[in-house]
Amino acid sequence: MQQSKFPTISRRNVLKTAGAFSLLTTVGVGTALADKPERKGNNFGNGNGIGAFLNEKALYKPSPIWADGVVDMTEQDTVEVLSGAITNVEIPIEGFEEMEVAPVAFNPMAIKVTPGTTVTWVWPEYPIPIPHDVVSLDGLFNSGYRYPGGTASPGGPVLPDFSHIFDEPGNYLYYCTPHGAPRKVNGIGGEVYNEFGMRGAVIVTDE
Length: 207
Hints:
The chain is 11% helix and 27% strand. With 207 residues, the chain is an alpha/beta fold. It has a single domain (11-204), classed as Cupredoxins -  blue copper proteins (Immunoglobulin-like). Strands 1-4-11-8-6 form a five-stranded mixed β-sheet. Strands 3-2-5-7 form a four-stranded mixed β-sheet. The two termini are 15 Å apart. 41% of the residues are buried.
């Protein structure tokens, strides 16, 4: 079984991102500009939709975004996904040019589980307080924004674990707003669509 790998952020990377994080966190809590998702005509294939969804071009993330395949986590009662994993970024905006990495990814991006599995998203502790949420593309779940360590605010109280039980076989897609939203939101530099490709997939199979 393939094991998930949770990357860490080095002191060098912290120093590179520290100068820009205040702006990133200010605009990082995206607000929707429309009540209904705007998918730009993209229905992500209507089939499993996983590749089209995870690899849709992002503003500030090099392609391919998803290249690690699907992590097999079947036959486990509970599994974890990191919300805020370190990933490479490219931000051609003044003040962000030297920012090579940022905690704006799910890891693993795509997992395969058995029906009845509980998936828990974990917000790691980082010195850069960038908030993330976990939002189902189909409206099945929404974690609300959480900061590193799973807190309600920087340095605030830790919220209860956010989990979802996947009972029915199928493919479940989700994203972070605005770092991977499939609709227009307010982000770095104003109105954006899919800033960093921060998206994920849960494949539930009984085979």
